[in-house]
Amino acid sequence: MIPVYNEEKDLQPCVLRLHEHLKRTFPYAFRITIADNASTDTTPQVSERLEADIPEVRAFRLEQKGRGRALRTVWSSSDAPVLAYMDVDLSTDLNALLPLVAPLISGHSDLAIGSRLARSSRVVRGAKREFISRSYNLILRGSLQARFSDAQCGFKAIRRDVAQVLLPLVEDSGWFFDTEMLVLAERAGLRIHEVPVDWVDDPDSTVHIVKTATDDLKGVWRVGKALATGSLPLDRITRPFGDDPRDRDIKDVPKGLARQLVGFCVVGGLSTLFYLLLYSGFRQFSGSQIANALALLVSAVANTAANRRLTFGVRGSAGAVRHQAQGLVVFGIGLALTSGSLAALDAASSDPAHSTELAVLIAANLAATVLRFLLFRAWVFPDKRESTVVASHTPSSPTCFAAPEAHQQPHPPLPQRPTAQGSTYAPQYATAPQSSYDSTQFRAGEAADRTRGDATMHLQPVRPTDTDPRDTR
Could you give the CA distance from residue 227 to residue 232 in angstroms, rounded to a whole number? Predict the structure, then answer.
C-alpha cells in the first residue's frame, strides 16, 4: 500500500519504480494499492491511469485525510496474507522490502518495521529531522517503555490475521497510528522484527513537523493513560498467533526456573516471618542459640513442605519423608550460617539489642535462602524425568512450491510462513498441510475441533526463474 495526499508529481514515478522492482526481484505474487487520502489535485486521475495500465495496481479513494485512516481501511479490507506500506517518496531503499516481509512469511514475527536508527542503517538527512526523530523515540522509551527503535519510518508490514485483531484497538487516524499500533503490539507480547534500512531524506516532504509532533505527544499521553488505567483490552491479542511453547501443557515437564523462583520467594518470605515470630516467642524463655535452633527447625519443616507442593509441584506422599530428611540437611546448613552470625555478634558485643539480633539473623537468612534454593532445585527436588516427553509435530506430506510447467528449474523459496492473510505486496498462498500436536493444549479458538494448520504459510512463486538480465551474477 502507498498512502498519498496531493502527490500528482511523485506518484507515477514511485509506482513504476516499485512495480519494476517487484517484477524483477519479488518471488511471490503482489498487489500495489494506492490509497488516496482525499487529494484535491490530479492524484486520483493518476491513480486511475496506473490502475488501468498495470494489472497489479489498485486505486482506492478515501474522502477523508489521515494516513492512519488509510492504512486501517485498506488493510482491513485486503484479502492478502501479508500487508505492508511505504511512503510515496521512496526514501527507503527498496532492497529492504524482501527482508521486511520475510520474517512474516516464515512465521517468526507478527509485525516488521524498517529502522533508520539501527546501528547498521545508512541514513542521509538533515540535523533537525535527525534530532526530532531521536528525541521522539527517547520520549517513547521513557514514557511508554517502548523497545522498538524507530516508530515512524514509513516502511512497515504486518500479518493479516494479526491486523484483524490489532487494528480495531488503534484509535489514531493520523501520523501517530504507527506508534500506537506498535506500542499495543509490543504490550500484547507480539513479535516485532526490525530491518535496518538505507534512507535518504526527501527535502520536498509535505509533512508539517510541528503539528505532527504536537499530535504525537497528545497520542503518547492518551495511550499512556489508557495503559496505566488498564482500559485497553490487550488480552484479546496476547499470544493468539503461531505455536507458542508456553501454551503447551505437557505431562511431567517441570515448571521453569522463573516460576520456581517466584514460588520460592513467596514461600521464603512467609517462612521468614514465621521464623522471626517463632524466634521471638522462644527467646522469651531460652537463650538466643536455642531459640534460633528451635525456630529454624519448625520453620524448615514447614518450608520444605510448602516448597515441595507449591514451588516444585510434587504431589502425593511418595518421597515425602526423604524430602523432609534432605530438607533438614539444608536446614543444618542454614543453622550453621545463622548460628555463626549470632556467635560473631556475641563476640563483638556482650549484650546486643534484640533489634540488632533480628537484623543479623535477617542478613544471614538471605544468604542461607540463596543456598537453600540451589540445593532444593539440584538435590532435594531435581528434575529426574525418566523419559523425555515432547509435543510431537507430525505434518502430512509436504506441500511443494509449484512451478509452471514451462519452467521446471527449482527456485529457492523464502522461509515459509504462518497462515496469515494480507499485504500491499500480497503473496498468494496454497493450502497448508494439517499438523497434529500430541499432548498439547490448544488455544481457545482451536479447542473445539482440536486441529490447527501448519505454522508455515505456503506461498506460490509466480516467476521461478526471473532474473535481471542486467545482473552479471
Answer: 6
**Read out DSSP for 19-81?**
HHHHHHH--B---EEEEEES-SSSHHHHHHHHHHH-TTEEEEEESS--HHHHHHHHHHH---S
Is there a contact between 296 and 365 (Cβ–Cβ < 8 Å)? no
Model confidence pLDDT, tens digit, residues 342-358:
888 888 887 778 788 88
Burial of 375 per CB tally in 10 Å (0-12, 13-18, 19+): middle
60 phi, psi to nearest 5 deg? -135, 130
CA 159 to chain CA centroid, Å, is 14
Strand partners, 437: 393
How far apart are alpha carbons 72 and 186 in whole angstroms?
Answer: 18
Q: Strand, helix or coil at 93?
A: coil
- 3-state DSSP helix/strand/coil percent for the chain, to nearest 5? 50, 10, 40
152-166, 191-205, 303-317 — most confident range = 152-166
Best CA proximity match to 373, nearest among 266, 278, 292: 266
Q: Are 361 and 342 in contact (CB under 8 A)?
A: yes
Domains and CATH numbers, the chain: 2-242 (3.90.550.10), 257-380 (no CATH)
pTM, to two decimals = 0.55
Given this model, what pLDDT does residue 248 score?
61
The model's pLDDT over 229-241, given as tens digits with 9 standing for 90+, comes to 777 777 666 655 6
